[in-house]
Amino acid sequence: MSITSFPEDFVWGVSTSAYQIEGATAADGRLPSIWDTFSADRAEACDHYHRYPDDVRLMKELGMAAYRFSVSWARVFPEGRGKPNAAGLDFYDRLLDEVTAAGITPYATLYHWDLPQALEDRGGWPARDTAERFAEYAAAVHDRIGDRVDTWFTLNEPWVAAFLGYGSGVHAPGRKSAADAFRAAHHMLLGHGLAVQALRAAGAEKVGLVLNIAPVMTPAQVSDFGRELSEEDAAAVARIDALANRQFLEPALRGAYPAELLPVIDRHAGLGHVREGDLETIAQPLDLLGVNYYTPLVVQAQPSEPADPAYPGSEGILFCTIPTAVTAMGWPIVPNCLSLLLGRISREYPGLDLMVTENGADFVDVVTGDGIHDVERISFIEEHLRALRAAIDDGARVRGYLVWTLLDNLEWSDGYQRKFGLVHVDFATQRRRMKDSALWYRDVIRRNGLAETRPRRPTLETVAARAGVSRATVSRVVNGESSVSPEVRTAVMRAVNELGYVPNLAARSLVTRRTNAVALVLSVPRQGADALTSAVVQYVTSLLEGAGKQITLMLADTAESHRRIAAHVEARLADGVVLLPPDRGDTLAERLSRTGVPLVLLGKPPIASLVPYVDVDNAGGAVAATEHLLARGRRRIGMVCGPTDLVTVQDRLAGHRTALQRAGLTPHLAPAGDLTRAEGAAATRRLLTEAPSLDAVFAATDQLAIGALQAARELGRRVPDDLAVVGFDDVDAASATTPALTTVRVPVADQALALARLLLSRLEGRHTTSVVLPTRLVVRESA
Ligand code: FCB
């Protein structure tokens, strides 16, 4: 079997959920669910309740073998209990007749987050009774449609429902309580176990559970999964894995909570809700585990980090951004994580059949006269299918793949702005239009695998043919040359938009015969940042040269050089620009971004823009530094903060203030005129004269901190006994001071690598967002 073909009985299909597509929220006796109460968006969604015959026809045309849908509990038990509502069940009766008549195998999900509001009013999932009601509901649904449903899934993504619904409150019902979240999670699991028993008793053949399982890793592991971790990072990864994944996998598949999770649950919610016998009930044998995968969880140890409310017990752990292409939702695209996770589950729970029950992506779609050319969605699915195929080769028992989702729909708290569908929905008219990805997926299903050649993006040739001009003309327009008449330019731009053409480096250089040149523009490095500048030069050059680009190094130190650089880029002598802007606002970045040539910046710019940048978590680092001082018992902390027109200084100052505020303390600030040691010493002298009782100094940079050490020595203060000193950056000199400086380490090489990767993504026409890398406290003798 070649890498592109799939096992013979492999199941292809799509997934949807009731609340996201049905609409008709008041029809036939349905009463509100928690999402009707919580959501600000109008609820017609895709009006699937009335248009289901059309939607089933679409699936049939696309050759779907499987359809995973969910049942709305609030239609079946509008009041949450009592007699099932026959009129509500009728809808699923009709739907299943249609689905089975189309030759499509139905997979029913019983709980895709839409709890009847009546049950929430009685305590919701944190109340044990809801689990019992769930089993009753499962039995009632089976009673009506069990003869036509092949496979039952009890819950969809209980982590999301419990921890976003009851922990962080960004999902319905919007409660913010760690105790409620853990109790909800347990009762969902219990409801799952009880429902499996009820379904089996009623004769259901195949029963499963759907979990969102995210591989958890550090930023460095994203490109090198085998990488050894420090003890702290390994603990951070294990903690998040326990909260997000193993909290559900272990009880359902092995009948026990992960041992290290129990104290966390106990601390937040007690353990009284976990009763004798519950775990046996939960661990019912399953026929299938549904795995939903979108993006990995990337974390690292960060001592001062407060817990994320969606992960109670995650204090000391930072959730990181990583330099990869992202979907419009901002979710990093990391297909090989799908292989990792399927491999892992197959190894850890051998003998279990798996199905990818959701995978897909939100991208901005453009409706054109001749279709919706969603090339990015196609590549996303294709890359994930390759990863899935590789996992099968390695022995993972994956039985099928379901795309999320059939239709553009109501994406929970994000409303209608998200576009995950293979089929576009115009929400004003409810008109459905197949996107290119739908037709592409149809072909995948037909041939039971991927084509040997990858789908081609529209090229200059296609644009030229569409606009009725030569390739050279298209290239001139795309490259912004002025020698083209306005009429021709309009025609070409129309074709570009209609085809969803993304100018790509290879095509451009082919036609223009330009070299693959990238400009690396440096301004004079700020004091103390030369290490970063040289790392950028080193890494950006080697990574980009490795990718076949030529690097033009340009120095932006005078007004004349700015003019020259702008002219160079405007003339399209560079296909992309990496800019290390000067500290203080200037207009070079703005000018370059107007050229339309892909640009990436080092450092967050003073004025927010769409230009992606790479920076470090300055505020987080300052919080860590300040909290370290507080933890050492220091209460009178001064800050030598540097010129406050620098964005970095602003962010570090903000973090310092936040930490002090949390501790109920007020800041003592001494702004330094620049970032030199001399200024650090002068500012510290001022601070200590004005407030002699200070017992600690936090300096915005190591250079300032080294100055502070000097001043302390001159004033006869002993460090750290009388005065603790903490810096920021971890420059080489920081470990060579006496005493050695406690500081916040800024990842130098990682920033340089991230910049280079970000530019490569942009050159490939990928959507990208800025990257903020984590910092880390390094404790030495000075504090
Ligand atoms: C999953 C949900 C699904 C949809 C996708 C984007 O977590 O199960 O309903 O929201 O994410």
TrEMBL record:
Protein name (record): Beta-glucosidase
Enzyme active site: E157, E358
Family: Belongs to the glycosyl hydrolase 1 family.
PROSITE patterns: GLYCOSYL_HYDROL_F1_2, HTH_CROC1, HTH_LACI_2
Molecular function terms from GO: beta-glucosidase activity; DNA binding
Residues that, per the record, bind substrate: Q20, H112, N156, Y294, W404, E411, W412
EC number(s) from the headed UniProt entry: 3.2.1.21
Residue stretches making up the HTH lacI-type domain: 458-512
Keyword entries, A-Z: Carbohydrate metabolism, Cellulose degradation, DNA-binding, Glycosidase, Hydrolase, Polysaccharide degradation, Transcription, Transcription regulation
